[in-house]
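Protein data sheet
==================
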Amino acid sequence: MKVLSIIGIILSPIVSLLSLVFMVAIAKWRMAMYQGTATYDNDIVYRAMEKSILSMTSNIGWISLGVMGYYITLYIVSMQKVKNNIVKSIGIIGIILSVLMICWDIVMMGAPMAISFDEVGVAWLAYFMTCLAFSIVMLVQCTKSLPKHKLSPKENVLDDLEFE
């Protein structure tokens, strides 16, 4: 459980940075497309830019889908392993939020020119930062809920030893 939370903590900033890079790149392509004199009917450059936007939106959509699936798995496993109300609440909220984001991701990948990643990228950044916060809280709660090893009266402790 701790390992899954640590992976979630590491994964969130990486995917956030990747999302930011894709968001800026797609926005630049779209601005170049709309500010130029290219038209859809007669310009090869316009079609090449459109294909580039479609492929970039699709690529980040698949990456996000995999990461969101990982976070759903993290929330389900953490709810099963850690019997704590905070973790259960975060798990339920995280699962609901992840399912909503997966639905939005599928819509984005289904119509990448209607909903481009540069338009929804801010929501992705907010989602991954929320997942980062949830992963940190779950890691803390997991370490708090671990059973503490208590010494029995028959066990020797270094303080109980007598030196001559």
Q: What stands out?
A: Residues 2-145 form one domain.
